[in-house]
Structures are given as structure tokens and as C-alpha cells.
Write a structure and sequence with these properties.
mainly alpha; 79% helix; 0% strand; elongated
């Protein structure tokens, strides 16, 4: 069963990506379950970033870490710096959503590549 381990791990990273994509939207977390899901998926994606960093894949690590922590940076900005209803608030929502969608696509491509490579290597161990 050791030959399935890389596939299972890369599948877990894709699930963390999915959770972050579904729950990392621009509204402040309003439920305990959403906060827990965001914390867990941020932690899992941060671990993937560490793995990429150890593999000397610096851009993959950078994009993965950015995707993992972008929502927390935005929530902090929203809570500490912005006044709801102001022009700066509307602009920050637009910028965050554009940045989030860009990171979402970039990290998805990176993680799908990892998943396909682990799928190809199932029978080769």
C-alpha cells in the first residue's frame, strides 16, 4: 500500500485547495465550522508549500503559500483598516477577488500537475 501514499497525499492537498476555494470568499467568517475549515486548509496548503520549498520549487511554494494565507490577510485588513461602505472597501473587495481567483487557478494547475505525476507513478514503485 506504500505505492498509493503519494497519490493519497496529493489528493488531500487538492481537497484542501477545494475547501479554500469554497470558503475563502471575501466575507468575514461567520460560523465556527467555516473558521475551522479555513484554518485546516491553510495549514495543509502551507505544508504543501514547505514541500515545494524543500524541492527547490520556489514559485510553486510562493503561490501555494499566498493562496493559503491570502484570505487571512484580507480578513485582517477588512477588520482593522477598512470602513464598510467606503470606496476603499469596494476597491479592496475587487482587488482581493481578482488576486484570489488568479492564485486559485495557479495553485490548481500546480496541484493537478502533482496529482497527475503521483497517479502515473502508482505502478512504478
Amino acid at each position: 500500500m506504500d505505492f498509493l501514499k503519494p497519490f493519497a497525499i496529493s489528493s488531500c492537498f487538492l481537497m484542501a485547495w477545494w475547501i479554500m476555494a469554497m470558503h475563502g470568499y471575501a466575507l468575514l467568517p461567520d460560523s465556527f465550522s467555516r473558521i475551522v475549515l479555513l484554518i485546516l486548509s491553510s495549514a495543509v496548503l502551507s505544508v504543501q508549500g514547505l514541500i515545494f520549498n524543500r524541492q527547490k520549487r520556489k514559485f510553486s511554494a510562493l503561490f501555494t503559500w499566498s493562496f493559503a494565507w491570502a484570505c487571512w490577510a484580507f480578513y485582517a485588513e477588512q477588520k482593522l483598516l477598512l470602513i464598510p461602505g467606503s470606496a476603499a472597501y469596494a476597491s479592496s473587495l475587487t482587488v482581493y477577488n481578482l488576486f484570489r481567483y488568479f492564485l486559485m487557478i495557479a495553485v490548481f494547475v500546480i496541484l493537478i500537475k502533482q496529482w497527475i505525476l503521483s497517479l502515473r507513478n502508482i505502478g512504478h514503485n
